Amino acid sequence: MAEPIITMRDLNKWYGQFHVLKHIDLEVAPGERIVVCGPSGSGKSTLIRCINRLEEHQQGQLIVNGTELTNDIKNVETIRRDVGMVFQHFNLFPHLTVLENLTLGPVWVLKRPKAEAEQTAMKYLERVRIPEQANKYPGQLSGGQQQRVAIARSLCMSPKIMLFDEPTSALDPEMVKEVLDVMVGLAKESGMTMLCVTHEMGFARKVADRVIFMDRGEIIEQNSPDAFFDHPQNERTRLFLSQIL
Ligand code: ADP
Ligand code: MG
């Protein structure tokens, strides 16, 4: 394997007394696409939120794109530039237009000229197939459109790694596909490293290099999507799959 872009070594995290991440060892190769699944409360969100330091681990090592995550704020700022995140609830700024949502980070954080940022923003709005929505406010868009704006917003920061936390689970069923299609396109065309928490099996089979199953704070099983879904090894994995399939 090439030098990993993400390395977790014996990573542990607690919320108070609650041991939420237990001895996580994980290496992610550049360009690798990983789907994380598992029961509610198993620590999936916590795991991926540690990667951009929205959560802090207390023990073990976490290295992202060559920078070890410690309490040093400089390191946190460095990796946040490399890591984009898309949440279940789109987290757009409601009082800014779509275009303004997309240019805010590039202009204020990356110090790009406004005209250049707008050009890049339009490019990504085209990529997620909603350039005509550029001057609307998030509240005027459907959930699926808002989530595509959120994806475009992340892309405008040119991240090396994209994290997705159940990006389709808050959407009405008829909007899930348009968002998944955008993500599949992104996975196939961009070569970007992606970690996606989702239970969308079709998506996992289409794009994932590896599926990781978590339960009670541990990685229980991991495999290629076909092997994982067709021949789960662990009893807990089988139980979980029998509930979502
Ligand atoms: P998942 O994403 O797999 O549903 P989470 O990572 O959100 O799981 O949460 C794992 C466990 O940690 C759950 O039991 C949850 O209640 C608990 N938890 C999550 N966030 C916090 C927090 N900020 N404080 C205390 N407990 C938390
Ligand atoms: Mg979660």
UniProtKB/TrEMBL annotation:
- Protein name as annotated: Amino acid ABC transporter ATP-binding protein
Task: State the UniProt keywords alphabetically.
Answer: ATP-binding, Cell membrane, Membrane, Nucleotide-binding, Transport
What Pfam families is this protein classified in?
ABC_tran
Q: Which PROSITE patterns has this protein been placed in?
A: ABC_TRANSPORTER_1, ABC_TRANSPORTER_2
Q: Looking at the keywords, is Chaperone present? A: no
- Residue ranges of the ABC transporter domain? 6-241
Q: Native species of this protein?
A: Verticiella sediminum
Q: Which family does it belong to?
A: Belongs to the ABC transporter superfamily.
- SUPFAM superfamilies to which the protein is assigned, alphabetical: P-loop containing nucleoside triphosphate hydrolases
Q: Which residues form the signal peptide?
A: none
Q: Hydrolase: present as a keyword of the record? A: no
Q: Which CDD domains match?
A: ABC_HisP_GlnQ
InterPro entries named in the record: AAA+_ATPase, ABC_ATPase_HisP-typ, ABC_transporter-like_ATP-bd, ABC_transporter-like_CS, MetN_ABC_transporter-like, P-loop_NTPase
Question: Which terms in the Gene Ontology molecular function aspect does this entry carry?
Answer: ABC-type amino acid transporter activity; ATP binding; ATP hydrolysis activity
The top of its lineage is:
Bacteria, Pseudomonadati, Pseudomonadota, Betaproteobacteria, Burkholderiales
